[in-house]
Write a structure and sequence with these properties.
Number of helices: 10
Strand content: 35-45%
CATH class of the largest domain: Alpha Beta
CATH superfamily of the largest domain: P-loop containing nucleotide triphosphate hydrolases
Shape: globular
Distance between the termini: 38 Å
CATH architecture of the largest domain: 3-Layer(aba) Sandwich
Number of strands: 20
Radius of gyration: 25 Å
Strand order of the largest sheet: 6-7-8-3-9-10
Length: about 350
Amino acid sequence: MIDFDQVVMNFGEKEVLKNVSFSIEDSEIFTFIGPSGSGKTTILRLIDMLERPTSGNIFIDGTDVATLKDRERIPLRRRMSMVFQKPSPLRGSVFDNVAIGLWFRKVGSGEIQERVPEALELVGLKGYEERKAGTLSGGEMQRVAIARAIATKPEVLLLDEPTANLDPVSTEKIENLISALKERFGITVILSTHDMVQGQRLADRIAVVIDGRIGQVGTSKEIFYHPMNRAVATMVGVENIFEGRVAVNEAGLASIDVNGTSIIATTPFPAGTPVMLYMRPEDITFHVKDGVKSSARNEFTGRITKVLPMGPMARLKIDAGVKLTAVITQRSYDELELALGKEIGLAFKASAIHVVERRD
């Protein structure tokens, strides 16, 4: 288990991490998501003991590694392997690149001859031993770097933006490999990414890092559908964010006033409570035929004010008394004959709204 307790990290006068606390369980995939420069890489470097915190405590299996001398850190560091965002190939063959960590650990040559091909087979590069590392593609080199890491049989694998700048095919291979390592060997995998969807796909739990702080830690569902505050909601693509006040609450079904518009949501907060409302754009549905009714509690008529193509999807901005953002497939957009300026019926369920008490 890895625990950060009120960790602060300064580089000169710049405070990179601000009272960061979290826990990582054994054999889980734990993902840090956040924008570039938010502090994700610094957290990974602290876990790998490449840096010492300015203040605070970092516990690995109960030992405060922040206070250990360098030589005392070596046994713990050998239980970990880290793959950096842009691994540089070493001169020589793929075999040499994968074996270097084993040489540093003074593993016998016979065992190295066994471990290197095993690691390469795990990452889908069987038979690459004699290839020159400098001739590999970016995706292949990233897999060689992961093979180098797992050849040492780590208990913890740290991955810093493992698919940054890779093509979709290479990205899928890396993601499948990460999942397989956890399932097959029970390795604790800790990775950073600015790709929200990748974090959602891979992680058992996610920590959102914003401006050097942990905004929220939770499962994928908790992070993406139940954000704790506006900063986290914005980070994970919750585009419908409203301030309101509970007008009436009957048995957990509340009418919430948002600038004169009533929105129905499930919440325990009583009448008079100031609240924030969060809803994902995918939770809005559409209809254009007169008389069509929805089972959703919230039904509105709105006008499309902006259309933003997104490959097979389209993002719509809609004025329905409140400003809404919705995402719809391009096929549905065409079938419903939607267009800029068109009036349309829309609906969303009361359960699609995540309600958080607002501190005025």
